[in-house]
Amino acid sequence: xxxxxxxxxxxxxxxxxxxxxxxxxxxxxxxxxxxxxxxxxxxxxxxxxxxxxxxxxxxxxxxxxxxxxxxxxxxxxxxxxxxxxxxxxxxxxxxxxxxxxxxxxxxxxxxxxxxxxxxxxxxxxxxxxxxxxxxxxxxxxxxxxxxxxxxxx
Length: 153
Description:
Elements: E1 2-6, E2 8-9, H1 17-22, E3 24-27, E4 35-38, H2 40-52, E5 60-64, E6 69-70, H3 72-83, E7 88-91, H4 94-103, H5 108-119, H6 141-152
Parallel strand pairs: 1-5, 2-4, 3-7
Antiparallel strand pairs: 4-6
């Protein structure tokens, strides 16, 4: 059995196209807190590599952390540069984020799940799997923005 523990998916930005267009992405995490950011295609490549490798058995837990940890300040600077528009992160209270998620059409249970996952990353969270060469994947946020986000905007 393989469990992949992934960083923040780049594709979550596609769920926030309106806020990216407006130039301000609301977040509940401190905007200066670094965290792993990862391209879903890199996650898929790690999964395929594990599934096709006959040399393992049992239970494996592997981090998939992308190429570098980024703060929201750094990530929005990358998005702004790659997409040619001003974008910044704005820390918002949990209640506002709950309202925003619910108004986007999320069911209450999904809002609770997203908020639990997000707020669980505050207050000194340390990933169980540290960043290593094995957990580091190649696709940069800049490359992903050029390939995926910019065309979607």
